[in-house]
UniProtKB/TrEMBL annotation:
<keyword id="KW-0820">tRNA-binding</keyword>
<dbReference type="Pfam" id="PF01588">
    <property type="entry name" value="tRNA_bind"/>
</dbReference>
<dbReference type="InterPro" id="IPR012340">
    <property type="entry name" value="NA-bd_OB-fold"/>
</dbReference>
<feature type="domain" description="TRNA-binding">
    <location>
        <begin position="15"/>
        <end position="117"/>
    </location>
</feature>
<dbReference type="InterPro" id="IPR051270">
    <property type="entry name" value="Tyrosine-tRNA_ligase_regulator"/>
</dbReference>
<dbReference type="InterPro" id="IPR002547">
    <property type="entry name" value="tRNA-bd_dom"/>
</dbReference>
<dbReference type="GO" id="GO:0000049">
    <property type="term" value="F:tRNA binding"/>
</dbReference>
<keyword id="KW-0694">RNA-binding</keyword>
<protein>
    <submittedName>
        <fullName>tRNA-binding protein</fullName>
    </submittedName>
</protein>
Length: 117
């Protein structure tokens, strides 16, 4: 097992259920040249939870392929400043053996704001 595949320590269900994970629809994608690693600035509509922005290292996707896509995000981790930009949520994906991100995708009938649990 490589380091990226090693299991993390066991945690209680309370930690998991404290996260607010929701479906969102990508509204816009902009280049983020100020970031240390290649990234986009992404705005996502989470329905009743509002529109939030994030910095995401998902440049293996063309920006036009991300627009209008349904994504999954954790929206209650707090804000983080990245190269002068405020990131408000964490977009979820998996990493392959080469380190490329593959975004998690809900079923097409999901709607912005739907709770993931």
């Amino acid at each position: 097992m490589t380091n990226s595949q090693q299991l993390k320590p066991e945690t209680g269900a309370d930690s998991f259920f404290a996260t607010d994970i929701r479906v969102g629809r990508v509204l816009s994608v902009e280049e983020f040249p100020e970031a240390r690693k290649p990234a986009y600035k992404i705005k996502v509509d989470f329905g009743p939870a509002g529109v939030l922005q994030t910095s995401a290292q998902v440049t293996n996707y063309p920006a036009e392929d991300l627009k209008d896509r349904l994504v999954v995000g954790v929206i209650n981790l707090g804000r983080k400043r990245i190269a002068g930009f405020t990131s408000e949520f964490l977009i979820l994906g998996s990493y392959d053996a080469e380190g490329a991100v593959h975004l998690l995708s809900p079923e097409p009938q999901a709607s912005p704001g739907d709770i993931v649990g």
